[in-house]
Amino acid sequence: MPNSDAQTVIETPADVADRYALEIINVSKHFDDVAAVNQVSLSIDKGEIFALLGGSGCGKTTLLRMLAGFETPSAGDIKINGVSVLHSPPYQRPVNMMFQSYALFPHMTVEQNVAFGLKQDRMPKAEIEVRVTEVLELVQMTRFRRRKPGQLSGGQQQRVALARSLAKKPALLLLDEPMGALDKKLRMQMQLELANIIESVGVTCVMVTHDQEEAMTMADRIAIMDQGEIMQVGAPRQIYEFPNSKLTAEFIGSINLFEAVAAFDVASGGAAPCRLECAELPCTVVSNETDSRFAGPCYVALRPEKISLETSLEPADNNWVRGKIDDIAYLGSHNVVHVRLETPAGKTKIVQVHVSNFARHAKSLDFEQAVALSWEPEAVVLIKAEAA
Ligand SMILES: Nc1ncnc2c1ncn2[C@@H]1O[C@H](COP(=O)(O)OP(=O)(O)OP(=O)(O)O)[C@@H](O)[C@H]1O
Ligand SMILES: [Mg+2]
């Protein structure tokens, strides 16, 4: 449910409170002369799983800590269910933060760990019993309730930490690198499991990760962060298919980027597809883009799986180049093939292509083999050069 849906409707403050679990309004955080978070604004829907994705040091944890109340913003406001929490200490916010290390108490059993926060809130004992049983059931840890964290696997510890975070029924669940301590295979299994549990509870969740696959698997929407700022916000598919900058294009998945100059046929009123001359590609590129704001210097971006590789060399007019195989990596489900092109500028350029292992020629590819690459106009994404 992107925010843009709401822009044409006039909303009263009550509507906004009803719609958004969390509003981050122009929030900045400075540590001395470092702007760890710089004028970030985000509105997060109730029940949404939202991922903050970015490289090390881009400000993800700092933003999360401000939501939890462990850090005070230098500027801006944070509202939960329409109410500013800026002056509320962490324990008064309807928020629970699950840390990377899970921070389970090693001397307590699973059920004591889960009950801890409820006891502190002086919930009656019988109610605690019921609630602990409920959340342990939810994360399928009932049969381990009397064990201590040291007697559990990484994935099981993580489920206990999640149970403890959900026990107090927070309005907002914050996860900082939730899979950080798990190995790759378990991580992928837990991503789906965790997302299912969060969705079944209906809690709004903001998670931090630097793993793009994790963000794509779990989140309804993703914000790409860089140097304290939000670069792009969108559904995983939207960010993958329509990156708005060189940075987001390179951050999510693999991509081939070529410097280009875009020309639009003005006489057609912008309806004709765009033609691009690339110093780095020995062909004219035609794209389906009709938005003339892309006119001038830009990047042509092509995902490796959207390029077709053929061994028979049938020439075409546009979107077609010859090259030689420079490298092949077998990755099981597909091959990553690096193809070397001679560019019009007399340099070489390596293009990455994914070739499915079902393809009839997948087995017969060899180093230095002559191949032809081609792609459809709709595969071409244009990125304005100044947005790089
Ligand atoms: N308490 C602090 N005092 C001074 N600088 C800090 C403090 N906390 C964070 N920073 C700085 O703020 C920036 C953002 O840090 P933050 O921990 O939010 O990054 P991150 O995106 O979570 O990175 P990572 O992926 O490595 O965990 C960094 O440059 C960091 O050095
Ligand atoms: Mg961090």
Strand line-up across the major sheet: 6-7-8-3-9-10
Task: Please report the number of helical segments.
Answer: 9
**Largest sheet data:** 6 strands, mixed
Structural class: alpha+beta
Instruction: Give the name of the CATH architecture of the largest domain.
Output: 3-Layer(aba) Sandwich
Globular, elongated, flat, extended or rod-shaped: what is the shape? globular
Q: What order do the SSEs take from the amino end to the carboxyl end, as H and E? A: HEEEHEEEHHHEHEHEEHHEEEEEEEEEE
CATH class of the largest domain: Alpha Beta
- Tell me the count of domains: 3
Number of strands: 20
CATH level 4 superfamily of the largest domain: P-loop containing nucleotide triphosphate hydrolases
What name is given to the CATH topology of the largest domain? Rossmann fold
Radius of gyration, taken over Cα atoms and rounded to an integer in Å: 25 Å
* Overall average residue pLDDT: 88
The low-confidence parts are: 1-7
Strand content: 25-35%
Query: Portion of residues in helices?
Result: 10-25%
Note the gap between the termini.
27 Å
Ions, cofactors and other ligands present here are: adenosine-5'-triphosphate, magnesium ion
